[in-house]
Amino acid sequence: MKLIDSHIHFWDVANELNSWVKKTSLPQSISPEDVDATGYVHIEAHAEHLSPLCELTWLRNTFATGNIRVIAFLDFTQPLQEFERRLLLLAAQPEIVGVRQVMASSRVSAYSPFQQTLPADLPRKLAMLAANNLIFDAQMYPDQYLPILDDIIASDVIMAMEHMALPIATSAENMQTWQTLLKLVSQQPNCTLKLSGFDIVNHNNDITRVLDILFDVMPMERLCWGSNYPVSNQNDYRCWQTRLSNYLGDPTIENTVFYQTANRLYFNGTL
């Protein structure tokens, strides 16, 4: 079976792009040569003060990139003129298919890396992404999405919602909001959900309950697998893929979730 990993991080701390990794127990180097999928969507993880092209440049200079697409960093809080300048720089790179800035902020979860308010001009910036055929790889909590969902949809941007849109299985309020969000985005063809990163804010023993809810609401053709490796399951690249495959138990659904959705979304059906 073909596999496209829609959410993986490649890095090598020796090149000084991802110095934060040195302070963790994560592997110091992860490359396409360490894993074995058909294709990869590399998600930026470099220091924000560096050029948004730094990881792409490293990948180009070190590996064959025909089966790699890149989600680059773009600061949505910067002034509109600078945002547009950087956006156009990224859009000119064929491997870059989208952008992200982690904007997850929560009152109930310890995982709350974004300590600012969402920018007021976010809808206009999303429309600029849409005009330049760049995907919005979004990482927010359900209560962040809901107030701006109409604006996101109106912008015509294609949105990939990272880490299942961050459900918190132990929070009744979050789960209720998450289910409301799922029902709304299930009707929006421009919205795809990534089956990745559940362990960031959850215990893995809650995954079956969450997947049952998710597959009951979302069309399977708008779901795609992502390993979130090596942040998740750093000792076993195939751990989450195996568990999800066992849950699905249907070759047709597996082909959609593990390959077809990501191939259409990130590779324009070419891989």
From TrEMBL:
Entry superkingdom: Bacteria
PANTHER family: AMIDOHYDROLASE, AMIDOHYDROLASE-RELATED DOMAIN-CONTAINING PROTEIN
Family per record: Belongs to the metallo-dependent hydrolases superfamily.
Pfam families, A to Z: Amidohydro_2
Transmembrane regions: none
UniProt lineage: Bacteria, Pseudomonadati, Pseudomonadota, Gammaproteobacteria, Alteromonadales
The Amidohydrolase-related domain, residue ranges: 4-266
Record's protein name: Amidohydrolase family protein
